[in-house]
Every structure is written in structure tokens, then in C-alpha cells.
Amino acid sequence: MLFYALRRLFLVSITLLVASIVVFAVLEIVPGDPARLMLGINATEDAVAALRLQMGLDKPLVTRYFSWIGGMLTGDFGRSYTYSVPVMELVRERMVVSLPLALLALILSTTIAIPVGIFSAARRGTSADAGVMAATQVGIAIPNFWFALLLVYLFAVTFRLVPAGGFPGWDAGLGPALASLVLPAIALALPQAAILSRVTRSALLDVMSEDYIRTARAKGLPANTVLWRHALRNALIPVLTILGLQFAFLLAGTIIIENVFYLPGLGRLVFQAITQRDLIVVESVVVLLVATVIVVNFLVDLAYGWADPRLRTR
Amino acid sequence: MIVPSPVLDIRGLSVSIGTKPILKDVNLTIANGETVGLVGESGSGKSMTALTVMRLLPHAAGTSGRLFFRGEDLLGTSEERMCQLRGDEIGMVFQEPMTALNPVKMIGEQVAEGIRWHRGASRAEAEDRARRILERVGLPESRFPLTRYPHELSGGQRQRVVIAMACALDPKLLIADEPTTALDVVLQAQILELLRELVAENDMGLLLISHDLGVVADMADRITILRHGEVQDEGETTRILREQKHPYTRKLAEASTHVPVWENAAVPNDGKQELLKLTEVSRHFPGSRRGLFARGEPVRAVDGVSFEVKAGHSVALVGQSGCGKSTLARMILALDRPTAGAITFRGMETSSLGEHELRAARCEMQVVFQDPYGSFDPRQTIEGSVTEPLHLVDKRISRRERRERATEALVEVGMQPADMHKYPHEFSGGQRQRLAIARAIITRPKLVVCDEPVSALDVSIRAQILDLFAKLNDDLGVAYLFITHDLTVARAITHDVLVMDHGRIVETGRTADVLDAPKTDTTRRLLAAAPDLQRAIERRSTALGG
């Protein structure tokens, strides 16, 4: 298992390296001068030249890459052009909103999806199964921003249970902070849960027709016990795959959801940075998001190794 | 006088799925310590009988009749009661050991699970009992710790684990559904011996299901022969096999010892053109990892093998599973390269050619695999699959010519030209194997490599396919390399035999000579293990007479 983990870790480092080169290259190769792009067409030559110097655009490409990646690794992300503060600072204060939001959504979607999938699989072909599957179909089809508005209307406007938007900060206490994250997390999680529960159901049904399930039944275990003890762990492998893939969509989803709920998170930061052409911020946040996705998929790989002993020796 | 009630007493059992009858009025009894063989071809309802006893039939199935287990009617009892009986008083062993175990659980865990479930034993007690039963089935803890996962065991070892699971609580009745069909003959003999011992030790009833009369002939006290869900013949084994009164019994017996009539059978070995030649061919695989940089000893899958095949000749390559047969076949087919040595096919050294130069050679050699179900693309028509090798032919082939050649190949293997528009699922296993052969001969190859081509087939189908191989050798002069662990097949259809063991060829010669007077232990072991109906009948008769 250790060897398996080390090998995965090595592959992750390679992936991260390649990803950073791609992100760097895309922003370098795009036609036009980044400094001019950031300043807009009305900027003076002097201003552009000054920004070029500040961004280090006069140095050769390779030097720039290494100083950029070196900065990244030591926590120096550069200075935001529009906010005039270190990008690191911006990212840090936004991260404490986005990371809990994403985690909350992830936890919510798995805790909903896996029991629902198991429920449906265990009652395959019944009207309960059909009802649940119809509901997930709706869940997949509804856009999350519209669903978010619906949640706001229902729980914030009509019942006044939670705030409609904004974030009081963690200083305001755990309760109020979490309360303002609940609706965005639900809006993010439900469509994901819909997909994940369908995957769980079909993976379980596939596994339930395997020979070893019949062996377990022949041992005298009742059908439901077999499902929990023998089928579930085998069915987890496709579920984990989808979970890893979904995480990227979850991050993309935060950009929209944070805007709907006026949350000062990374998604909103990157959205604003793009509209204000703050390339330094865009570059940093994109690399950060990419790194997060890669790390999450590394964790998924480790989970594979836990779930399936056959993968460890390979 | 009290007559002891039998362990299993099936009376007038009928099963249907939807409107389709599966079993019709089946009667069968098993007494304590008795082994009853249930024989029939695929689709005859053997497995359905077993699943009915276990009450593990698909939900849609309807049953009628009575089914008593130690006096208790199982068809009328509750699911809770069935859960108590399954795995405790009734054990079951399945056909496919490779998939019968949960891949993510350790073997100790899987054996102990039933013990804990039924006896409420603690983990330690259950593991202790699991340890003992695993040792009993030949997996001592010193070599096979409880923490092994199924993928770390071979097929024969996995089947032992399945048997350990079924017998962990000393069941009164054991149902073994084709327990050895997926194993080679030596392993088959070992597993059957183990079952025989367990029956004697625990005085349990054994329902042994098989498609092969030869397998049950040695094991069963009584035989029931099933066809299309109906009992054809049943009674004491010796009588059934010696008298062979029922025409279907006779047919099955003949099919299992069938030898095709074959013009080329007597063709002498010399004077023919050399087709395939292997010189000191080896294939070593890197050993398994021992650490970050260290590796174990390399595995010598094939080790210095030399032989040749002449044009139009049929050669058997026999040996136990894992002896290197399939690795060798892959190298001959240029799907893998030897680590040392050379393979020459029709004067071309295929072991050193690039993929492009190999096209000409590939056109001249084709392959037929064991599993007629897995070797067809389910979404392609038969025409598409059968004509696929034609892309190896150098000249462009028009659509019409493709169709003509497909027609010709289908007719040659005994199928209808109209079959080319159908899909694989519309055919039975035997028909699919015919189609696989049609695909192999469509390019008019000089050599066809057959990897266990009949071991997945029923005896009567097997006899037909062997006849087909013989006919095609007569008609087309195609040479065969038959990879098999079944010596009956080797004897029926090959001129020469190569016996392989641990990557080496240990014995070669004319098939009849080698099999009649084996010189090495490997060959003797294979011969002794091979189920032989004739021998079994003789043995039983002398036992009765003496």
C-alpha cells in the first residue's frame, strides 16, 4: 500500500508540474501583451511599460516561469493589480469561505446520494425506486443557480430561516457563518447528489449480479446483509471515480453559486478578476483550483487502493 | 421399523420462469453419505435444480411439487428459515472459482463470516475454525495465511476456499455445481478427491452436478440424467453406465469418448514442408516487486522451448494450467515477443519482424479461443466479425467478395449463409464456436492455434466441433496447434503431442505413443487425472465382481 501511495504521489507531482506549465503557457501564448490587456486600450505607453516591469515581462520566458512557480511554492503569489494587495492575502481570506462551502457540499452530496442509491438498488423495480429515480432525473436537469434562487425564495424570504446572501465572517461565530453557507451548499450539492445516487444505484446493481454475491447468499446471509457487507465496498469504486470528477464541477459551480449568494469566496474572486482583467489573480487562483482538483483526485486514488486490494499490488 | 428419511427428497418438482418451463416433474433423493450425480447438457436444468434447493431462484420463477430437506418442506418454509439452513446445514460450491469470492475481502474473513453468522461465534473463535477448515481443504496457514486476498490465489486454491466456506459448519447436504469444470484435469482430480473425503468424514449427502459423465462416473453412487428439464434416466451408477439402456444416456456416453473419423489421421510425419519452427524460445517476466527498487526472481513462463510443426499437421500442446501454454501460444501468434530464441513461420522470423511486416504472417495464422461467448463483439453482425480477418489480405476486397467468402466459410463450418446477418447472442455456445472457426479459416490460413477450443462446450457439442476440426484438416490442409489440458481431445484430433511443465517441453512424440506409454511423471500425472468413462466403468465392474 505504501508503494502504491508513493507511486501515486510521484504521478501527482508530475501532473502538477505539467498543469502549472500549461496555465503559465496559456497566459503567455495568448496574443497580445498581458500588461496592455490588463490596462485596456486607453492606457498610456508609460503605464504599460511600468506594469511590464512590475510583472517582470522583460525577462526571458523560462526565468519568468521559474520565478513564478518559485513564488507559488513559497506562498508569494505576486501582487494583485486591481486590489493592490498580495494575491496570497486575497486568496487566504476567500479560501476560508470557499473551502468550507465546497467541503460542506461534498459531504452533503455523498451523505444524501449513497443512502439514496442503496435504497433504490435494494428496492429495484418497485415504485419507490421509480420515484427516487424520477426525482434524481429532475435534480440533474435543474440548473443550480435557478435552484439556488428557489431555495432563497423558500427558506430565506418566505420562512426567514437563514440569510438570503452574504457572509458574516467566521468571527461572527460558527452558527451564523454556517447558516449563511447552508443554502449555497445545498444548491451545489443536490444536483451532484442526483448524479451520484444514480451511479451508486447502477454500480450496486451491477455488483449484485456478480457470482460472489450468490456465494454470500449461499452462506446464509439475508439479501440486505449481503448488500451492505459484500456489495457496497465493491460498488464504491465507480462511485469514487465519479466523486473525484465531480469535485472539479463543484469548484466551477462555486463561481456561479457564490455570485448568487454574494459570498466573498474564491469563485467570486476569480469572476471579478476576469472582468477586471487582473491576470495575476486569475493565474494564481486557476493554478490553485487546478492543484486542489489534482490533490482531491490523488485522495480518490488512495481511496481506490483502500477499497480494492487488487490495485495495491499493481 | 423406522426408515431414516433421506437428506434430500425432491418429489414432482416443476419450475418455470414466466411461461417457460425449466424443470418438469423432477424426482431425486439423496441419503446421508451418498453422492448423487446430476448430469445433463447446458440448459437441461441442472443448475436450476440446485438453486431451487437453495431457494435462490430468480424472483420471477414459479415452483410446484415438494422438496424435503431432512423431512422439512423447503418450498413452503420462510426466507428466515432458509437463511438459517443455507451455509449451515446446506452448503453450495459453484462452478467459477475465479469470480465466486469477494475480491475485496480476505479469505479468512470470508470463511469466518458464515461461522460467525450462524453460530454467533466471536471473531477469534470463528477465525480459529476457519483456520482449521482451510487447513483441511489443503490451504495450511503457514503457506496461505487468512489475510490472503482471492487474487493472490490460483483457480484451484480459490475453489478450495469456496469448498471451505461451504463445509465450514459440517453441512448435511453439499451441492456442488460443476465444481471442477473451470479447472485443469490434475486440479479436477484433487478437488474431486477432497469432496469424496469430506463426504465420508461428515456423512453428508453430495449432489454433484456435471455435464461430463466421466467426472461423475467415479464419484457418484447414483446418477440422474436430465434433459430439457426432465429426468431421462436414473439409478445406480454402475448399472446406468454399464447397461446404457436409455438412448440419451448412450448418446452422452458415446459423445464423451468420441473420436472423429479423419482421413489425414494416419498421414506420416515426414516428408512434409516445415511450417512453424521454434528455436530455444524463452519468455521471462520480471519478478514481483519486493520494494521500491528490488524485484524478485524473474518468472520463467516459457524456458528454452524448441519444436516444429509441419504443414497440415495437428499438434497438441498439453499441460496443467500455469505451465506456460498460453504464453507460448501468444508468442507464436506474434502477440508477444520472446525474451530469447527465435520463432520462424513459413521462413519468416516473426519474432523479430515489425507490425507492418507481420501482416503477411498474420494472414496465414489464425486463432480460436476457449470462450465462444467472450470472443465476439456483441454489437457486430456475424458477417462483420467473421470477415474481420480479411483486412489482413493485401489486395482490396470488394463488398461482394467479402460476402461470398463469408458464405463459403459459414457453409464450411456447417452454418447457414443467412446467419451472417444475425448477432452473436442469437446463437448457442456450440454455434458460436463454429462461427469462431469460420472467422479463423476465412483467410485460408496455414496454421490455426486453438486455445482450449472445446473445453467450455457440452460433450455432444464437443464431439461435433472435433468432427469439424477433423473435416477442415482434410478439406483445407490447415495445421493445428491445440492447446489443451484435456488428453481426450489431444488423442482425438492430433498427430503429435508436446507435454509442457513449468515452461519447458518435457515429452514429445506421436500422440498415441506418448499417451499409451508415457515416459515422464508429468504425462503420467495428466493421464491419471483425466476422467475416463471407460476406465471408470471397468473399475466399478471389477469392484462389484470382487
Automatic annotation (TrEMBL), chain A:
- Identify the stretch annotated as signal peptide in this record: none
Q: List the PROSITE patterns.
A: ABC_TM1 (PS50928)
Compartment(s) of residence: Cell membrane
Keyword set for this entry?
A: Cell membrane, Membrane, Transmembrane, Transmembrane helix, Transport
- Spell out the molecular function terms from Gene Ontology: dipeptide transmembrane transporter activity
Family the entry assigns: Belongs to the binding-protein-dependent transport system permease family.
The protein in question is named ABC transporter permease
Origin species:
Oricola cellulosilytica
Provide the taxonomic classification. Bacteria, Pseudomonadati, Pseudomonadota, Alphaproteobacteria, Hyphomicrobiales
